Amino acid sequence: MKLLGISGTITGSKTKIVVEKVLEEVKKNHPEIQVELLDLKEYDVQFCDGRDPSTYTGDTKKVINLISSADFYIVGTPIFQGSYTGALKNLFDLVDPKVFRNKVMGFVATGGTYQHYLVIENQLKPIAGYLRAYTAPSYVYAHKDHFFQDELVDEEVIERVTYLAKELVFMQKSLKAVSETVGELN
């Protein structure tokens, strides 16, 4: 099984830090699960123009293939102007929705106000629903005050990271067992 962490921003570092924390927690407790990080800052991804995803080249093709090869996801974004990033929106637009179908998706977000956690409930979870992904009920929201320099230090947030990592693995393993028993859920 492969868990892909997505840092859905081309600016800042806090979102990547939280996504990496979830990946580290999964790797620590489930070394049999392959974890990988997709940091959008490291790729030159083209804007989606509506064409067939298989026709993109370069970094865009690499990113689409990386997402397509994953079994489940932890998706992170900073919250800007009360919404997730345009870079993450573009990523969702580039990938065929069928790629996400019946896969587990969890969310983390970072922001500068304590109310921005609502973006996860009101914007990100509905996207997962549209994609027909199974959404982890819990999530992690980290405010800028939960960090010291470039380290997540708030114990409550770290506990939520641990719980989300457990929840993602539990959901993925449970779905895999069901599909092996009764067949694919398409």
Present the secondary structure layout.
Blueprint: E1 2-7, H1 14-29, E2 34-39, H2 58-68, E3 72-78, H3 86-94, E4 104-111, H4 118-130, E5 134-135, E6 140-143, E7 147-148, E8 151-152, H5 155-182
Parallel strand pairs: 1-2, 1-3, 3-4, 4-5, 4-6
Antiparallel strand pairs: 7-8
Helix pairs in contact: 1-5
Organism: Metabacillus rhizolycopersici
InterPro entries: Flavoprotein-like_sf (IPR029039), FMN_Rdtase-like_dom (IPR005025), NAD(P)H-dep_FMN_reductase (IPR051814)
Domain NADPH-dependent FMN reductase-like: 1-145
Spans with pLDDT under 50 lasting ≥5 residues?
Answer: none
Number of helices: 5
β-strand percent reads 15-25%
- What is the architecture at the second tier of CATH? 3-Layer(aba) Sandwich
- Helix- and strand-based class? alpha/beta
- Helix and strand run: EHEHEHEHEEEEH
Inertia-based shape? globular
Q: Whole-number average pLDDT?
A: 95
The total strand number stands at: 8
Distance between the first and last residues' Cα: 19 Å
CATH superfamily: Flavodoxin domain
Report the biggest beta sheet as strand number plus sense, adding barrel if it closes. Answer: 6 strands, parallel
CATH fold name, please? Rossmann fold
The helix fraction, in percent, is: 40-55%
Number of domains: 1
Name of the level-1 CATH class: Alpha Beta
Radius of gyration: 16 Å
